[in-house]
Amino acid sequence: MTGTSSASTAVVAGALANKVGNGGEAWVRPTWTIGLERLGFDAWLVEEIAPGEAGLPDTAAVEWFRRVTDRFGLTERCALVCGERCVVGPDLTELAEVLAGAALLINISGHLRRTDLPTPSAVRVFVDVDPGFTQIWADQGRIDLGGHDRHVTVGATIGSGDSPLPDNGLDWITVLPPVLLDHWGSVPMPPEPPRFTTVGSWRPPHGAVEHDGTAYGIKAHEFRRHLDLPARCPGVDLELALSIHEGDRADRERLVDAGFSLVEPAAVAGTPTAFAEHVRGSWGEWSVAQGVYVDGRTGWFSDRSAHYLASGRPVVVQDTGTALPGGEGLLMFTDVAGAAAAIRDVVAEPASHGCAARELAQQHLGSDMVLGRLCDQIGVAP
After folding, report:
1. CATH tag for 181-364 (out of 3.30.300.160, 3.40.50.2000, 3.40.47.10, 3.40.50.300)
2. Per residue in 245-302, pLDDT tens?
3. Mapped to the 3 state alphabet, what secondary structure does the chain carry?
4. Most buried residue, 205, 215, 226, 359, by most Cβ within 10 Å?
């Protein structure tokens, strides 16, 4: 422990150990933490995991947490709580002191729930990274958004009246995914043939959702609507690093038969460094989005796509109504014909689109800008 907390302490709570081997997700919580540190906060990353057999923590989860926090220089400002003890970082008494004096709690997805680790002095901020799912679940009483002073979402239209989804009676503040721009320098495009990639899951750990009589689908449904994309883009490798359950073997075979290349996420993006190399090794990203993001017009934009842009890699993604300006560098589509046309545009002018992608990241996604604006909005300064 580097010392007691002060009025400028900020705590970021979120899932890291709970997402072992997910190299892309491993950038998200550390980025918030380091971004707040760069603004002048004494920033901490805190996570809790459930005890396993005999009350012991999962050793793989603990090791992953250590590796990632070490990778990002957070070794002295992190804590992993399991049951009645911290398995990484200071003991619970010292951690409680940090939390008790914190001025800001960034609670990503409401991850920190423990009542024995209170933050009485902090502005408690719920950060929603799954717009649509979060609001519908709260509307149905499946999750509780209470206990927070402010509510923030990466869904640019949530609460604006431009989305048919509930706002839960809350004053939602919108935010773009922050990026540590100096970690994502642009490098030249790799040699031909052109290769577009993405990383994700065929299905989320939860199912589809319904609101006001409308069913909203998941990413698997959207991929199925774009099966003929490879045939419309001859000479282009469309590589999907997707986690697909054995029960969805038929879908896997359909993707391969359609001409997509499939790889295992753990093999190409199983660490933060591998994920970054995978992003830079492509010509850009092509991906669909969760159906609720699209049909709910949530304005969602992914942290994954943000990192492609920051690497000077153009992004071709399904239109969700995001606040980012589309066009060169970021090309949004509504159907398979539009997706194919966008990919052909990038292949025709890869350098121009790559420069525009990096410029978009610099103009809109830098952590200093994104988190500085957020702190101004919620009235907290380091």
Report:
1. 3.40.50.2000
2. 999 999 999 999 999 999 999 999 999 999 999 999 999 999 999 999 999 999 999 9
3. CCCCCCCCEEEEECCCHHHCCCCCHHHHHHHHHHHHHHCCCEEEEEEEECCCHHHCCCHHHHHHHHHHHHHCCCHHHEEEEECCEEEECCCHHHHHHHHHCCCEEEEECCCCCCCCCCCCCCEEEEEECCCCHHHHHHHCCCCCCCCCCEEEECCCCCCCCCCCCCCCCCCEEECCCCECHHHCCCCCCCCCCCEEEEEEECCCCCCCEEECCEEECCHHHHHHCCCCHHHHCCCCEEEEEEECCHHHHHHHHHHHHHCCEEECHHHHHCCHHHHHHHHHCCCEEEECCCHHHHHCCCCCCCHHHHHHHHCCCCEEEECCCCCCCCCCCEEEECCHHHHHHHHHHHHHCHHHHHHHHHHHHHHHCEHHHHHHHHHHHHCCCC
4. 226
